[in-house]
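Quarterly update, task 2.4: adenosine monophosphate-bound model.
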Amino acid sequence: MLNIVLFGPPGAGKGTQAEKIIDKYNLVHLSTGDILRSELADKTKLGLEAKKFMDKGELVPDEVVIGMIETKIDQNPVAKGFIFDGFPRTTAQAEALDKLLLKKGTPITAMLMLTVEHEELIKRLLNRGKDSGRRDDQDISVIENRIRVYNNETAPLINYYEKQGKYRAVHGMGSIEEIFERLCHTIDHL
Ligand code: AMP
């Protein structure tokens, strides 16, 4: 199995690239952000609870997102592998994911980090806010908070995966196709 954590700050292009990777490698895309937004659209209790955090650009509690990921993994028993997008975002989430995958006997293959300059992230997020109507992409103070939360709580995972020998950085600037080619090159050489 090929299990990839697609990593990087908000606006790095994880969702866009994950869609292309799953097509080429026949994997299942698990985005906690997408799952939370769909819960919210369905007005479930979980979605409405999560909204309070999402609107402020704060993280939804670990146990909520870990439970969601566990359910989705269990719902896809014959998957050839998973792309984790926007998960894990804390050390507790990364440890829980390792435990879940250990039970399945299929560990994380690699963590691919998309590196993008700060100004470019802000530009992409504001553009996405205009195009998609995502509320958390329309308010510059929420965007800046998400990047701050990323730097404080999520970026330490680089070290977590580096220690496991699984960390790979991929230059995330340029066209969607150029970045996709770099990711494929990295995946093909894992
Ligand atoms: P994203 O679509 O990945 O940018 O996520 C949008 C929002 O959903 C984030 O700002 C968080 O509020 C929440 N979220 C998504 N994934 C996670 C996660 N793994 N842990 C905690 N909160 C998350």
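Highlight for this quarter: The radius of gyration is 16 Å.
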